[in-house]
Design brief:
By secondary structure, the chain is mostly helical. Helices cover 60% and strands 0% of the residues. It has one domain: lambda repressor-like DNA-binding domains (434 Repressor (Amino-terminal Domain), Orthogonal Bundle). Helix 1 packs across helix 3, helix 2 crosses helix 3 and helix 4 crosses helix 5. The longest helix is centred in the last third of the chain and has 16 residues. It starts with 6 loop residues before the first helix and ends in a 14-residue tail after the last helix.
């Protein structure tokens, strides 16, 4: 079983690829450097606001970042849900 990939891992790759520090990115995005640091460390989720800012800076869509976050959230939640205890509706 593989571990869910937090969007912060992708962000770290973008930082490396573009050769920009977390502090420089935070300044460019107009946010506190701690916000970027927490995302990169996997301690904070990417919000819609952050996704918009990341999209502008890196030339991606905000949806790209939101999809990364949603995928991670689902992968983290899936093992916690006992599907056997949920009865599906039948049409």
């Amino acid at each position: 079983m593989t571990h869910p990939i937090h969007p912060g891992e992708h962000l770290a790759e973008f930082l490396e690829e573009y050769g920009i520090s977390q502090n420089a990115l935070a300044k460019r995005m107009g946010i506190h450097r701690m916000r970027v640091s927490q995302i990169v460390r996997g301690e904070r989720s990417i919000t819609a606001d952050t996704a918009i800012r990341l999209g502008i800076v890196f030339g991606t869509t905000p949806q790209f970042w939101m999809n990364l976050q949603a995928r991670n959230d689902l992968e983290v939640a899936k093992p916690r849900v006992d599907a056997r205890s949920i009865e599906p509706l039948v049409a």
